[in-house]
Amino acid sequence: MGSFGDLHVWFCGLNKSSGEDDLTLGNTCRVDALDLILQFVSTIVFFVILLIGVCLKVSQPLCVTKFPAHTCRWLLLVGLLILLLGSLAEGIITDSTFDNNESTKPHLYLTQCFAILVTLGTYYCLQLAEMYRLKSLLMGISVYWICSLSMQTLRLLSLQELDAPLSDLARSYFTTAMIVIYGILFLLNGLVIQKCWQQTMHGDREDCADDMYYRSDFVNTLSKLTYWWLNWLPIFGYKRVVTIDDLGVLPIEHRTKRIHQSFMQAYEQEKERASTNSQLPSLWRVYFTVHGTGMVESLVMKIMADLFGFVGPLALGPIIVYVSNTVDTPANENTTPGFISMEMLFTNGFFLVGVMFIATVLQSICNQTYEYWVNIEGVHIRSAIQVIITLVALYFKMGFSSTLGASVFIITISSHFVSARYMSEHEKAALNLGDQRLKSCNEVLQGMKLIKLLGWQDIFFTSINKVRELEVNALRKIKSFFNASAILTDSSPLFVTMIAYGTYTALTGLILKPDVALPALALFNIFQAPIFLFPIHTFLTKAKSIKAGDEATETTLINRKQFSTSYGAFQSSFNASDVPRDLPDDVAIKVQYGSFTWNPDSSIPIISDVNIEIPRGKLTMVIGEVGSGKSSLISAMLGEMTTLQGSVQFHSGYHTVALASQTPWLINESLRDNILFGQPYDQERYESVLEACALLPDIEILPGRDMTEIGEKGINLSGGQKQRISVARAVYSSKDIVILDDPLSSLDAHVGAHLFENAIMRLLVQRNTTVILVTHQIRFVPHADQILVLKNGLITFQGRLQDMEKHNPDIFSYVRQTDRSDSESSTHEDALSTDTESERRLLENQARLIKHGQLSKSTDLSLTFADTNDEARLLDEEEIERGTVSYKVYWYYFSSFGWTNLVIFTLFFICYPAFVIGANFWLVSWADAGLSNLQILWGITSGYMQACVFSAIVSDFIALVSVVIGAIHATRIIHFKMFRQIMQSPMRFFDITPLGRILNRFSADTEVIDSKLFDTLNCVFFNTMACLSAAVVNVVISPYFLLVIIPIVILCYYLQWIYIASSRELQRLDSVTKSPVFSHFSETLGGLQTIRAYRCQRRFYNSIMDRVDVNNTVFLYLQTMNRWLGVRLDFLGATAVLFSGIITVTMASVGYLAPGYVGLAIAYALQTSDFLNHVVTFMADLEMQMNAVERVKFYTDLPTESFEGQEPSHDWPSKGKVQAQDIWVRYAHDTDAVLKDVSFTIHAGQKIGICGRTGSGKTSLTLAFFRLIDTYRGRILIDDEDIGTIPLTTLRKRLAIIPQDPILFSGTIRFNLDPEGTKSDGELWQALDIAQLKNVVGDMRKGLDGEVSEGGENFSVGQRQLFCLARAFLNHSQVLIMDEATASIDHHTVQILQKVLSTAFAKQTVITIAHRVSTILDSDTIFVLQSGEIVENDTPEALLANDKSIFYSLVLSDRKKYVKA
After folding, report:
1. Which of 11, 74, 404, 1046 is the most exposed place for a label (fewest CB within 10 A)?
2. What is the full DSSP assignment across 1208-1251?
3. Rg (CA), the chain
4. For residue 207, what are the CA distances in angstroms to 64, 217, 822, 905?
5. Which residues contact 427 (CB under 8 A, 6 or more apart)?
6. Which of 594, 680, 679 is nearest to 637 (CA)?
């Protein structure tokens, strides 16, 4: 009993000498003792459970199915923990009210200590119960909660026995709140036990895959709010490099398909609403329907964060008052022993410091959660609320003088709106110019081969740089206005303090004291952010929404609705009232009274009065001159044109379509995948298709055979190979209708004949497939079951060949002339067999070249490979650096930034906070002195204004101006260097680099350097100086703060280190995973007609969704990592606030520190909480954004072509003599020769024809003339000048070429013919007349100034080739090279052109590369190439006289009869 009595005396803190209970606290000690027993026993139990859980190490479920009211329970537990901490503080403060000579009273606070431990144990037990469905554990927790509820009820009853009313006791409030929370927790737990026990015993989610590691929605609330579940990633990234495979897959709810489905459902609902109300659909409504809940939740979270943010400034005043009273009043004087009131609790400085700490932590959690959910509209509303609350708080703190001070902010807001309006205008201009620049860059990259051949690099380089300069000027204005607003924002607190504090005494008659001045200063600092961000965000968001949002999008939706019934091949035509319900069985397609146009806004038809029936299971051929409308007719059938009149109808049971377009479209996958195109693999059918399309010789020599990767746009294939694969895809598809748009033009004669006979006739027509063949090879017309002849958009003939003799005898005569008699068939078969064997040998030679290196897409060799160790792959993975960004990248950027600008910027950014610190120390001295003499006050104000305000503003101004100058200079120089280097890179670079990868540099990376890097650099310096200022102020006020700040800095450094290790790689992965999205999107756009014809939209939609998901996975982790870091840094900042408050309040309480300095130290510590997070985040952002500089820098170091040389005479070449002396040519230094020991002499004015089979080196020879590939041995002379000594641009401009792939650039016809503007209109019209285009251009409304769309898509392929011919004529070069310039031109036009060319280029040397040998029969000399060597060199007559010559076999396989002498 003695020992128990002693324990009782100690626990209750009784006076042993009196032997009586303490009447002040009544019977509460006994209740506390009972509660302590409960809490102690519970602590032991939870500790045992913890040990069991740790020791057993039971495997944790991947994802947890949460119990009902999961979030509510966890938030209640957080609230309970805060109440217990408050109750603990209350107990300690109550204990301090007793005489120091008396013993302490542990019952006032010891119970709370154990209750806190039990509450923490409850967190762990609830998690275990939820993961493993432990019913017994849930019931045990319920028992604990009901017992705790009973204890709190007893405590409240014991408090009623005291003399003081409950409303005067702080403990009664805590007890009542805990009764409510325990009761709710008990009821919720009962609900869980009752309703959820029938669920499966494990907690795995069905939608949780093993490789899904992003489990934010599958963890408990506390882990979710603190991002504890993400700890694995920074630790993993610290140990090794993070790759995309390490991140796993996205949860279903974050996948693009799910989001798109939600958006489309909302959009359909909005369309119904708009239709009902006769309104236009509003995307804002759709956005709100889909994302509205998240918007509201983020808004609520941000408001809570801002409210918590006011706790610190508002608590500063009471803390200073507490310190002042403690210094002035002896301890415990006028303090009645016993339970304290709420007023006493909230005037205790130490308690308020703890409140500030908890509020800062809660603010951090709310803020980071908001940042996770945030959208820009939340920023708008949040800023307004923040301003209102701040104004109200200032008025209650300082009265009318605060209103005068806040008027400065009002003026500042007005100026911000003016700046923001101008920023918005220039932002729109910059966005439009950026789009224009990117579009031009895309076009230049697409046509880079032609640009180099024509020597137009400087023209396009200058053109795009002009747009870039306008864009940079707009960026300069944006940043200038932004910095003007920043200067006003930075200087406004200085003006505010001058006005508000200077008028405070005069207006209120009160002395300015620290408890007024310093809280007001903290509130003024809060005022800064919203008045700066609100107008800026308002206008810039409006600018971006106008650019890419509602107006443009709704217009698109309106147009979509308006014209949805106009694109009719697969949609509206089936339901047209004037169309029969179905077609006869012998008709596959029927077009009635059809008139079609490309422009939806135009009423002028491109093709009109179309009335045709395509017979089912037959071959229909479409022929006509260039530009007659053949391809447009096909597009109209496929629903790609706007239907002005009539209808297109497919047979309801016979309407699946396959298409081989005129320009073959391939995907960046294997050769087999290009042929299968989503169809199941049937080996027998597949091999028969390969044989029919003459692809077996190609495939047999490939390292990966048919699994060899095909490069972007088929860059590693010749034109004929691409076309054969395109036809093979159509043949393999087994569709009802196969449409072939001129696939034979780009094929050698014998290959074309083989493909027609075996693929088209044998595998399609003979198997009753409906075939529509557009062709200029009219020698095949006799095989047609129906012939359509088009001219000027009208069908001038429709019928069979025998009907053509009366209707069009000229074409009929030519068809008969070119038709081979049956008697020659056996000879042809022998020749074709010989040709195939020859081609096989050539392809085997290509394999040897492939094995030793890469080949160019510019060559007509077959395949190239980037990695001999992975032979089936073509391209290397995109370059990606690992580890820390090299200092060389920073050096490169700051060199472009300008070292002078950097020094000035750094120096004055240091000066600005120094002057502000001086001003604030002056303010504390002023407030502590309690000055009341107005004359002295105004004198001090004047000195303050002159010494501090002016100096700080000037420093801020100089720093911000220097950073604008430096950033603009850097962005200009970096883009200039990158673009110049890319334009001067050898063609090899473009052959092996996907277009999307290059465009990524010009889009995403350039945007980072233009906009984000500037802001980040600014923020790094500003926040670093702010943090250093806070640390310096606290250390100066209290050197003991060093004991706190040093561990915090070490922890910050450690956090930053492990964070950057992962986030750096995530940023790089984010950049790298964007390229496949761009490439696939660009690839899909290029093949939309093919995709829609095959009806593969869903497959390609899924494919790009998968690529977007990969990028979104990286992006999501990157953003969540930022929040992970933010929570931890905010906690460290809150710790700095806590210890700053404790240290300064303690020092001031013992008289070592003036009260004003307590407020100043805490005010700066409060800023540390924000700025510490910003420093580490922005420093990490800086390094991640330097990744963009790193990627761009890589392209500024690319090898370039050699442009130097000795300028020739102004009229060179004046004759046109061409000599090759033992030349050896290759595509790169690491590849074998494609031309070997070639020598020849072409005399001035000669007409040379060059032919040879696939891979013989024809195109390689033409490229050697332009030094587009490397002539590493021997030399080429033109008019006795070595072309290797002539400046590259001069060489290319002095030669003329008509390329195989005709390209026009967006702009005008005049620009495409004469971009330098040196030719007269008469010369331009003459060139068009020669090219048979005078009527076409003359019919255009603007003539020579008529618009050319991107890629020349508003002209047919044949017309584009004719434009290239006109362009070559204007060059007036003595050397003209024609690389199969008439491949896509009809025979009639070819005959006309040959006559014109024989006159217009009579004196020039003309070198013609031909697939159709008939086009070079009139040449003076024929070169026949084989395996990179000239094997035959003679006149056509001599070569045809030798039936053993290769040229003879080529002519023979062209199925023409020639009688030569």
Report:
1. 1046
2. --TT-SSS--EEEEEEEEESSTTS-EEEEEEEEEE-TT-EEEEE
3. 41
4. 11, 11, 68, 53
5. 474, 478, 539, 540, 543, 544
6. 594
Q: Determine the Cα–Cα distance for residues 190 and 184; give it in Å rounded to an integer.
A: 10
Hey, which residues does 1409 pair with through a beta bridge? 1250, 1379
Query: Residue 1284 has what DSSP assignment?
Result: G
What tokens does 540 get? 């810039």
- Among candidate residues 647, 646, 709, the one with its CA nearest the CA of residue 992: 709
Tokens coding 891: 């050096």
The per-residue pLDDT for range 777-803, each reduced to its tens digit, is 777 888 899 988 888 888 888 888 877
Q: How far apart are CA 379 and CA 534, in angstroms?
A: 7
CA 919 centroid distance within chain: 45
Instruction: Kindly list the distances between the CA atom of residue 484 and the CA atoms of 409, 481, 612, 970, in Å, as whole numbers in the listed order.
Output: 15, 5, 69, 20
CB 73 within 8 A of CB 191: no
Measured distance CA(644)–CA(656) in Å, rounded = 24
Cα 1415 to Cα 760, 1110, 1254, distances in angstroms: 25, 51, 17
CA distance 153 to 186: 14
- What DSSP state is assigned to residue 485? H
Residue 828 has pLDDT above 80, yes or no: no
Backbone phi and psi for residue 682, each to the nearest 5 degrees, phi listed first: -120, 105
**Alpha carbon distance 755, 752 (integer Å):** 5
Contacts with 589 (C-beta within 8 Å, 6 or more apart), sequence order: 612, 613, 614, 637, 648, 649, 650, 651, 737, 770
Q: What digits encode the pLDDT tens for the residues 1266-1311?
A: 998 889 899 999 998 999 999 999 999 999 988 877 888 888 999 9
Please give the Cα distance from 1286 to 1294 (Å, whole number): 11
Task: Report pLDDT for 601.
Answer: 77
d(CA 137, CA 189): 11
Measured in degrees and rounded to the nearest 5, phi and psi for residue 798 equal: -145, 115
User: Based on the number of CB atoms within 10 Å of its own CB, is 821 exposed (0-12), middle (13-18) or buried (19 or more)?
Assistant: exposed
DSSP letter for each residue of 167-190: GG-HHHHHHHHHHHHHHHHHHHHH
Which pLDDT band, with edges at 50, 70 and 90, does 1191 fall under? confident
- Per-residue pLDDT averaged across 731-745, rounded? 89
Q: What are the backbone angles phi and psi of residue 1070, rounded to the nearest 5°?
A: -60, -45
Contact 1301, 1355 (CB under 8 A): no
How many residues can be counted in the chain?
A: 1461
AA identity, residue 1167: Q
Strand partners, 787: 621, 799
SS3 content of the chain, % helix, strand, coil (to 5): 65, 10, 25
**If we measure between CA atoms, which residue out of 1176, 1185, 1215, 1396 comes closest to residue 1294?**
1215
Cα distance between residue 566 and residue 636, in whole Å: 11
Residue 1191, amino acid: R
Distances (CA, A) of 1351 to 988, 1176, 1303, 1357: 22, 47, 6, 10
* Spatial CA neighbour of 767 closest among 806, 797, 738: 738
CB 1250 within 8 A of CB 1408: yes
Q: pLDDT tens, 218-231?
A: 888 888 888 888 89
Cβ contact 372:1119 at 8 Å: yes
Backbone angles phi, psi at 1219, to 5 degrees: -130, 140
**How many Å apart are CA 401 and CA 520, to the nearest integer?**
11
Look at residue 212 and give its three-state secondary structure: strand
Q: What does the alpha-carbon distance between residue 529 and residue 1254 come to, in Å, rounded to a whole number?
A: 68
What does the alpha-carbon distance between residue 1395 and residue 752 come to, in Å, rounded to a whole number? 26
